[in-house]
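Schema walk-through. Below, the input block comes first and the output block second. Nothing else is stored per chain. Lengths vary across the set, and this one has 292 residues.
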Amino acid sequence: MPVTALVSAKSSGVTTAALALTLASKRPSLLAECDPAGGTIRAGLLGGRVNAATGLYHLASAQRTGPEALAHAFAAHLCHLDPAGHRKLLPGLTDPAQAAALIRTWPALADVLHVMARQAGHDVYVDGGRLALEAGRLHPALTPAPLLYRADLVLLVVRGTEQSLALARHMIPSLRTALHEQGTGADALGLLLVEEGDFRAHQVSEALAIPVVAALPYDRDVAHYLCTGGRPPRGYGRSLLLRHARTASEHIEAAANRRQVQRQYASPPSAPHLAGILQRLNQHQTQGAEHG
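--- output ---
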C-alpha cells in the first residue's frame, strides 16, 4: 500500500483531506499528523479526548534510545478513529516549539510508516501541513522533509481558486527540485484538488503543469465536522466528501502503482528491526476488543 504525503502552499484543507482519505479507505489506514506547526485533530475531531501524553512528540525521545524503542513508542501512541481500530491516528504536536526535536526523528519515522504500508497493509497518509522554504529549499525544522522524500506520492493540496493556484505556483519549483535531488524523483509530485472555486481539474493541471491525481468536493458541513468534531452531520457516512474520498484513495493507489512500474524502482527495503510494531499493534487491538 502507498505512503502518501499531503502538503500545501497555504491553508488549503490538508488535514481535512487527509482525514477524509483515512476514514474512507477500504483497507486499514493510518494518518500521521506531522505538521511542524502543530496538530489540530486532537482538539478538533477528537474533541480533546486524547491529551498531550499521546502523540508525535514522544517519538523523539524514543528514537534516541533506538529503533526498537521507537517501534514500541509508535504503537503505544496511536489512537483509533473508529471503534474497530481499522482507522488509526498518530496525533500531532501540541506546541510548534516541539518541532525542532523531531529533525532527527523524521527519517526513522519514515521507516516505520513504510513498515505499516508494506508489511501491515495500511493506506498511510502523512499530514505534512504548510510547506516552509529557506533560501529556496524546504526548511529543515518547519517541514517534515524526510517524510516527503520517502513518500510514494507527495500531493500538493490546492483549491480551484486563483489565489490558491498562485501560491502553489510559487512553491512548486522548490518542491520539485527537492524531490528530484533528495527524494524518489520529481514525478512523485501530484495535486489533490479541493473543488472550491472556478477552476476545474484539467484547468488546474494545465495551469500548474502537474497532474491532478485526485479531487475532493467542497462539502462544507462534513469538512466542518472533521475540523471541529461534535455531532456528525446527517448522512455523514454517505456524504459526498466521504464517497469521493473512497474514489480518491483508489486513484492515489493507482497512481503510486503506475509510478512504481514506470520507474521500476525497488520498494524501500524491509526493516526487520521494526517488525515488533506489527506484534505490538496486534496486541493493542486484541486488548481493545477484549475490553470493548
